[in-house]
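--- STAGE predict ---
source: upstream dedup step, 1 unique chain passed
mode: sequence only
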Amino acid sequence: MINGTFKIEKVWKLIAQILFYSTTILLILSAIGYQYSYKQILHDMQGGIIWGIQTSFITSYLLVYILSSVINKTLKTITKKEFILLVTVLLFYFSILSTFSINTWNYFGWAFTCYCFGAFLKMYGNDYKIYKQKYPNVLFAVGCLLLIWVSMIMFDYSPIPKLKGKWSFLMSDANKLPVFLMAVFIFVFFKNLKVRHNKIINTVAASCFGVLLIHTNSDTMRQWLWKDFLHNTDRFTSSYLWLHMLLSCIGIYIACTIIDICRIKFLEKPIFNLIGNKKAKESGN
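--- STAGE serialize ---
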């Protein structure tokens, strides 16, 4: 987005998508017997856009996009050294401190940090040799993954009671340093792949946000999906837990993608095309 153009139509599309899923899922779950308090109804129907602003990735994503034109102008006026200083301070506060010391997690702050880091890669990434390579980055990503796994095992079997199980603090969130670095290495690896234009990839990619909105819609949705429908806790001691996990994730992703593709085709495109045609006629008159 550092070289992108802010479009108000995208904001309305995002808000419409959020409200559609939050309202539809609330109505469906209510119809099949799930109980909501008045406070839950108010929160879930607006998709956390307002009341969930402190704990919502969706709201943070939306706010950063709305501010993108202002952020872009600012980032393009500073020097490379100033940009490095900005990104270093942000990562130190939101990632390094949060990994090894105190919890500094904040949805909007982390969204802004990732935006700035992505902008830096776009503007100055080619100045660094590793940014233009594929395989070293995938090896580094695998290394980060192994570090996370080894750390989990070490903390789980630690003879020191205070350290037992503490890996979750070091490795569990998106801003933890090994997780962040792994994400960056994976991103750079795929950026350097030479992939031709592919309609299937683009269609699936367009529904990624929809997948997120559906399966993480609310605590009630999580209750229905993971506990009551998939019975995850019942299979915790099963020898086939790994297979259940794999098939559940693949199945959810496919189902949610199909749902969102249908929403785009039968609701979003017709409605926004109608609005666009109406505006074109009014401007023509």
